[in-house]
Amino acid sequence: MTRTGGGSVMDAAKAMHKAALDSGFGATEGLIAIPTTSGSGSEVTSFAVLTDERTHTKIPLVSPEMVAKLAILDPEAVIGVPPRITADSGMDVLTHAVEAYVSTGACDFSDALAEKAVELVFAHLVRCYTHGEDRDARGHMHNASCLAAMAFDNVGLGITHSLAHALGGHFPVAHGRLNAMLLPHVIAFNAERSTLAAARYARLGRLVTPSATGSAAVTSLVAGVRRLNQQLGIPELIVEAGVAQDEFRAAIDQMASSALEDGCTPSNPAQPTREDLVLLLRKLG
User: Fold this and answer.
1) With a threshold of 0.90, does the pTM exceed it?
2) Per the CB 3.0–4.6 Å rule, which of 68, 117, 151, 231 could disulfide with 144?
């Protein structure tokens, strides 16, 4: 089976392939993946995420049989991606890399992949957004997406994704956009509660401001993420993303409970309470 498309298309194809295999009708030669966005990195992961629209929940699937046998990263496949999708998917890449870097499962190999992905995003994402025809910038972001995915597929993610999964199940806002809005708050939350996470965020912060050290480097990372969001037209508040404030606030408790049980939460460097997750959601309005 050959699958071509963005993350949602990739995940749907992976789920169908797995279901077909389990039914005895699958293509035994495996999957060929050609991503047309630089975001999910689904072309190299064992995960697929589906949405149950009846229960407003994201359903994660994991199987080595969903890993593609061949992934083709062609910058030409993403040249025509609209700016908004470029922004949302690109910030998904950054979130994958940052969360993998501070994951409880992080190791030397995932660190190398994640750190390079962070570097590439800060260097090339805005250029892709403003000059989408730039093949060189598109190629670097395509590589960053794949690198970050290889990192998190092996070591896990964190509560930025847990919260984004819960939010995305309730409201029609792009997953990457939700990650971008949540990431600065989650970095601050984790850095306050884990000295190890703070030290690792500081290393990433020096990619933004090389002279920064300690807490100043963490602040630099948060500021760098916020600056990217601003340059990419990504809002800070959920109402600016098209969600009614009363509906958002009414769903906060349910979303916090869902995020606490999410599969990404155990690998977060600081284990949150349900109340912590409520407070993080309230940061969005």
Assistant:
1) yes
2) 117
